[in-house]
## 1
Amino acid sequence: MTANNEVLLHVDNLVMHFPIYRGVFQRQVGAVRAVDGVSFDVKRGETLGLVGESGCGKSTTGRAILQLYKPTAGKVEYEGTNLVTLKREPMRQMRRKMQMIFQDPYASLNPRMTVGQLVGEPLMVHSVTTGEEIDKRVEQLLELVKLNPAFATRYPHEFSGGQRQRIGVARALALNPNFIICDEPISALDVSIQAQVVNLLEELQQQFGLTYLFIAHDLSMVRHISDRVAVMYLGVIMELAEREELYNNPLHPYTQALLSAVPIPDPVADAQRKRVILEGDVPSPANPPSGCRFRTRCPIAVPLCAESQPEFRELRPGHFVACHLAK
Amino acid sequence: MPDSLLDVQGLETTFKTPDGVVHAVNGVSFNLKEGETLGVVGESGCGKSVTMHSTLRLIPSPPGRIAAGQAFFNGRDLLTMSNDEIRGVRGAQISMIFQDPMTSLNPVLSIGRQLEEPLLLHLGMTRKQAEDRSTELLEMVGIPNARERLKDYPHQYSGGMRQRVMIAMALSCSPQILIADEPTTALDVTIQAQIVELVKRLRDELGMAIIWITHDLGIVAGLARRVMVMYGGYIIEESPVNDLYANPSHPYTIGLLGSLPRVDGLHQDKLFSIEGLPPVLYHKPNACPFAPRCRWAMERCWKENPALEPVPSSPEHRVACWVDTKTGRPRS
């Protein structure tokens, strides 16, 4: 997990709105503002953790980066190339370098394909290799993710959740990518299996110098795997910092509340913690609050918070916060 | 057993499937004292939910079958009661909340209708009384404008609020036991914290006993007084909460705690992972169910299934293992 300072991916003011249509003439009456102006960098070789509660736009951000959705506005630069304006064919070529691991290992693998076909598919689609070469590469990939290469002739239903997620990882690795977006790769798995998959991801990162964008809602796991962490709320990044800095000195009231809400598997330490219990629920992204989006649940909000959206500013070196009151 | 409210002995539950009989629960015994909070921890398929559902006879039969066991509640065996009798216990004296509040609520009945149902049924209230009591209950679980919101339907409530409604419903007849089956698993952490806080407050106010089923060792740490860890249809470790986290004794518990990164925590370079997969229970295990994944496993572990025995340091802390994991030697 040694990150150098070279920026691999630069996301600038990314906006992803999904229109809402109503009525007989299907006129647009509004938009779900899933991602509403998000900017960050991912450095080569690092793991950037992207955390937030459901509906905060973290997965949409990941998909918009890979152009699985066409962003409404903003720039996504990968090694200096803006992906948003890229034509179809060059974008297809770019996809070799960036891959995704999905959340649900039960839904993301075609049940009618064998493991060999699933893992070999990217190689065929991008016509990298053919025939026997593919079989060899598939064998190699299955070994990399610690599955028995003899499994290549089996179907996904014969595997457990953790094994299926390994198949997903092998598929993502097939084209030797540099950058992998892991979209909640472990949240569907049992606790003892989660550690297996996370350890595998970490080993592969070291072996191949991979860069990860790790999207998750589990703050403990994000702390474990990330070098830097960004916290999202209602389509906006609230805070971004180095891992230790963020967890030890959270400056945004949302981050503070979020961290204090995570249970610790230790009754003694848990009893000594100060809890910030947030009131209410996350507002709808179709109609977010004015000004700061967190103000409706914020324990320290002042009138200014309703008037203007706080700037995402660098309060300490490398530590960015979007809050009027953070010092 | 005067001091235990619920006393389950030797419970076994099986399910008939096209592939064979699954032995989901294989002889589980435990008790629950008045006002106590018991955490039941384990991964999917370990039998934690089936145990509690069996106790209340909520197992669909067929394919499920309670093959053996007794479950004494206030001195009467829940497993041999008539259907009418058990119906009088469920919802009134022992009530349950489930993981997914959306599928547990009826989408075409208003929240008020659903809240009033147990009051009319079990307590014989009039409509008017039931409505007043429902309003009180919604206020108790922290829903603003309670009387107005009784008219709303489940889809008009958020996930966290639906779970509050479920809790209100479960507590409506002042039960002695509340069984909570992963009630916060589908919720976000900030909402989970709200629900846990709510349950703690209500427990202190109303004094009911709670059985909290979860896969999250974190939640139980802050909530339960005693914890049972289940694996392969057995209780493999049982202890007062502090001692379990300070001195986990079963290899599975040790592994599970080691595989959890901590949000407050010292950074571990590598998570401790338990290799292999949980057992598939087509046969009732006749050896330790964890042996294939255990790094301490010795010959005996493959031949005999250990019983739950107290650890030397604490009589209330019991573990089912042939190996003393502190020394790595066989238990004497």
## 2
Amino acid sequence: MTTVHGEPGRVPAVPVVSTGRLGLARVLSPAIVIVVAAALLVAAISNENFQWDVVARYFLSGGILTGLLTTLALTAVSMLIGTALGGVLAIMRLSRHPVTNAAANAYIWFFRGVPLLVQLVFVYNISALYPQLDLNDWLTPNVVAVLAFSLHEAAYMAEIIRSGILSVPKGQHEAASALGMSPWTITRRIVLPQAMRVILPPTANQVISMLKSTSLVSVIAVPDLLYSAQLIYSRSFQTIPLLMVATIWYLIVVSVLSVLQNRIERRVGRGFTRSPQRVSKTSGRGGAA
Amino acid sequence: MTPIVRAAHVTKRYGDHLALDDVSLDVERGEVVCVIGPSGAGKSTFLRCINRLETIDSGTIELDGELIGYRRMGDVLRPLPQRLLAAQRRKLGMVFQGFNLFPHLTVLENVLEAPLRVIGTPRAVAVAAAERLLQHVGLADKSASYPADLSGGQQQRVAIARALAMQPEVMLFDEPTSALDPELVGEVLAVMRQLAEGGTTMVVVTHEIAFAREAADRVVFMADGQIVEVGPAEAVLAHPTHPRTIAFLEAVL
């Protein structure tokens, strides 16, 4: 039998080309996006009610910057305490002891179930529960805020940390045990570094979410970023521009945190993805050994 | 001299299932023992009981005359505290079917981790030893790679180097080539053969009958949680006496 179209294996294949319709969409869709974005920008600039000059005047003012620092400090401290407490709760949840387990479960059930704003106001008024303790002296609004946010955050971090620890395969534990590592060494050197890959991305989300939640403290008069802006506009009635100041600052901080989050994720992901350039870069080193 | 590993009347249950049924085996220093048998025979369970990754229900397992994972208190055995158990496990190297390398550490760090953290070997000494071991398994040029960048055969060779770094008295291999692509089995068996020739005491659970014939001093055939037949490799593999052994070898060869 003779082949008309040439030998087998020599059949030319036509590369995939995009159809005309798709090509049009590829040009049109960014064009639409650009037009809409430009329209929004023009609307924002031309609408005098935004009062951009006021925004510029207050953007770096002392009151706003102090408020920003308070917001950042509140986020950092609450996150640290919340994570530490969350770690303890995670270990309790993983324990085989039923009472320990149930206690952690109850904690998580309560602090995840009650809205953060309710918890905040509740802690703020806790001295009404124990008037004889005279708690008002040290339960300043700042302490109340840190306490409420930390306790709330711990419930979420407990679940994040627990799922991270559970994500490490059993074989890792066995291999480390077989090498004679103590339980503590296994946790610190083998399990936690691997759990971090699962723990860190949602934790970064929690930080971002916490940063925004701290704006709730305006109800208990802690001068954070939002409350500082409110203090100014309650006197000057320049509500919109000062809300814009706060909005822009929140967006800046969240953007920086997102960049950091990406970096951290790449760092803890080491060894979990194939990386051809890393192999070729370092392959010469061991060869000399 | 006492055998390095002495298992006596070991029984292990999973619920109603009797995984190990009165298993007794002595392993002498420098000996290579291959454990063969059908799936579910209890081979891996027995191996895992030796370094107490599995607990046993009755019987004793001794390493160099010392009970593994338990201490005798009157008539019963009580589990040893984790710290003391960890110290015992240093004397046993284990190679797993699924490699179980630490994915967040480089090849060199995988080999270094236990000597540095468990024994406290000075870093320079440990690095020199680790590099020598990696060269021994043919992976000196991969020391800076991460496990994910290696083939299965390479990963298993790193796992062998990692276990050897603790200078164990006995190496336990749990189906070390079963998870490998066929063309990668040879390189791992070659390393194991070298170890066997070098006088390392080895207990190898394997389906590689050819390896057992070549490298083993003794072959143990297990079925249904029991040791059915045990003897010199040549005798068990070429002239099996028990009908179960005969049937198994006919099926796999």
## 3
Amino acid sequence: MKPFSWRFIRVWQRNRDIFFRLWHSEAPGAVAEPIIILLAMGLGLGAYVGMVDGQKYIEFIAPGIIAAYAMFSASFECTYGSFIRMEFQKTYDAIIATPLSVEDVIAGEIFWGATRSLMTGTVILTIAAAFQLVSSPWALLIPALCFLEGIMFASLAILFTSFAPAIYSFNYYFTLFITPMFFFSGVFFPLSSFTPIVQTLSWIAPLTPVVRLSRALVNGEIQLDLLWALALIVALAILFFSISLVTMRRRLTV
Amino acid sequence: MAIIKTKNLTKKFKDLLAVDSVSLEVEDGECFGLLGPNGAGKTSLIRMITAVSPPTQGEIWVMGNNLKTHSQQVKAFLGVVPQLDNLDQDLTVLQNLMTFARYFDIPKDEAHRRSMEVLSLFELESKRNSHLKELSGGMKRRLLLARGLINLPQIMILDEPTIGLDPQAKYLVWHKLTELKSQGVTQLLCTQNMEEATVLCDRVAIMHQGKILSLDTPRRLIAKYVGNEVWEIEVNSDERLRTVKELENRGLDFEEVGGKFQVFHIEDEKSVTGLVNSLGRLQRRQATLEDVFLRLTGRSLAE
């Protein structure tokens, strides 16, 4: 594996510039959906569910929605978004003819994907706070958590993209991997409500430790064993990040 | 001094030897042409020289730097103009240049000054705030060339720079490239336009099946492989055999192309007189690089 350099920031800047030029074409939708889900499920379903783990249902799902949509942001950015830049617009080819390396480009893409997670997470957190669903100042750490989560999911998405033969391949990624995680990682139901087999699978899903941390921060229930969840996210992020640099170099420098 | 040097450069894909042990030297300040049919290995060669694709074997030095260890530094000296449009579709003309300048760490004010300069060089100033989709194909190519100059490169790598351009734009580009050469910018030009190679290149290498078949100035290549003039003889079919025999008897260097004979290396007009009776037609014309190209790389389709 070759390391990336500080030049990755140039790719991040490029993506930022284009995002803020075109944000109105994408961002409102990206934020409207989680808010609708939060209110529809929280208030609608919540009226039937009653209390979960001693909380109102809408309070229970808010931290999970933050974590899940931060995951969606990084995943969309680094699957469809990256594939379009790489294959259709040939942006990567243009950039690697300059002093930037493949590793710089990929690191820039991942950190940009993580930035999208941070923005999405922060906006939902702010709205949740406006609905008085956030009870602890520990929640101020949520943006940092979303950024870290974003690095993990952006890296995993880029890793998948490095093998994707066509843009349609991402349908598999979302229907077989991302969407199941959305439902089985403790966003909408406590893990304890699943059968043991599903619980085991849930613990393998990388979204699960993020939801756990997010819920702990929003509720201010800080315990030492949260460090395990944090360590797991960091480890997975580093692992996926490193592998994606190698597989992308293989794909791009033929 | 050789500004680009390759030694036994080889690129192998799964079952294809795209570049086969190519050793060449591009001199400082020259325009070096790379000619060859589709699939000859030109693009693979260029991709290795621009550090985008690692060689299977062999070495490359650019301005004395070994590309394997100094690719980042070398890329800062290069202005690459690709064959395929890879401009940033989501940015305006000026933003494309400014964003590209940032990849080279050019400070903002300087980047803006240079952007305006290269836009005026390629007569695109009035389009600076246009979106890419408002540009014609010719304007996009000129923008690609302008972008390739943003880092004031010492070497330009040009892959089919005038493909798809109308004659006006083509002459503008040729004129600008000639000017750049007079300012000392070395050019490595990949082209299939023989006129372009003749006009721009000091030396050309003719590539075929991954190898360089011949390398010299356009004029000397023409003299060596076809002579200064080509005589074309058209006869009807019952005269054909007699003509072949006659050409052979006279020991002439000829080729039969689509029912026509092309005769090369004619030292003396007398050697051709009387070859054609009243029913045939004989035409003489200036020999071109295209004749050399076709003789060396064959007339059948390569792929």
